[in-house]
Amino acid sequence: MEEVEVVVAHHECATLRVGDVFLKIDADQARTDVEVGAMTMAPIPTPEILWRKPPVLALAALPGTALGRLGEPSTASSAAWAAAGAAVRKLHDAPLPPRPGRAGRGLDELAADLDGECEWLVTNGVLPADLVTRNRQVAEAALRPWTPVFTHGDLQIAHVFVDGDEITGVLDWSEAGQGDALYDLATLTLGHEEHLGDVIAGYGTDVDLDVIRAWWSLRSLLGVRWLIEHGFDPSSPGCEVDVLRSRM
């Protein structure tokens, strides 16, 4: 009999693995609608949808292994990281999905969220004020006009699967939509700055590296409270707090 593995679980959603099937349970069916729609539109490999019966979406497991994990050294080759960059470029060149995604928030909304999170981090003594202030300054470079592209919106390395040097698929499309291309590239390389050159080489066009670094700070500042409140530890080695410290 197959064992049930809890891949991730918090009060918003949970993902279970049973053999070669992933069961995604989400109380917000709008997120699942976005995920299914994005996987249908995406020009890169995605998991096969086996069935959907709200609140459960069943997906086939992808072959290969994840490109890596935040906070852990990646064992994937430079060619695999470059292949990930090429896959992201193919996604960004595809026709736009119908609505903004996580990477498509307006600049005023994003700046307001950033100010609120920075105040919370300092007021509650979660992070030193100088660390927050410095990263807030770095993050400013991301708050600029951008041309919308088809973004994944949560392109963590754990969501990108490889077999050798080839991309076998990308998971978790619930945040997909129109957004800032450099947000995806920053999310993919968060905590793995040593592979940024490989990703950009695969992406195949010049990008503003200062904006990618700004997104590392911005994404980390916005993520710390959410991670704490959902039972994760952003201060684990190599994770968000270390990313913020690396900007000092």
From TrEMBL:
Domain Aminoglycoside phosphotransferase: 42-204
Keywords, in A-Z order: Kinase, Transferase
Pfam assignment, any one: APH
Membrane-spanning ranges: none
Coiled coil segments of this chain: none
Domain of life: Bacteria
Record-level Gene Ontology MF annotations: kinase activity
InterPro entries noted in UniProt: AGP_Transferase, Aminoglycoside_PTrfase, Kinase-like_dom_sf
PANTHER family in alphabetical order: AMINOGLYCOSIDE PHOSPHOTRANSFERASE DOMAIN-CONTAINING PROTEIN-RELATED, AMINOGLYCOSIDE PHOSPHOTRANSFERASE-RELATED-RELATED
Name recorded for this polypeptide: Aminoglycoside phosphotransferase (APT) family kinase protein
Natural source organism: Nonomuraea africana
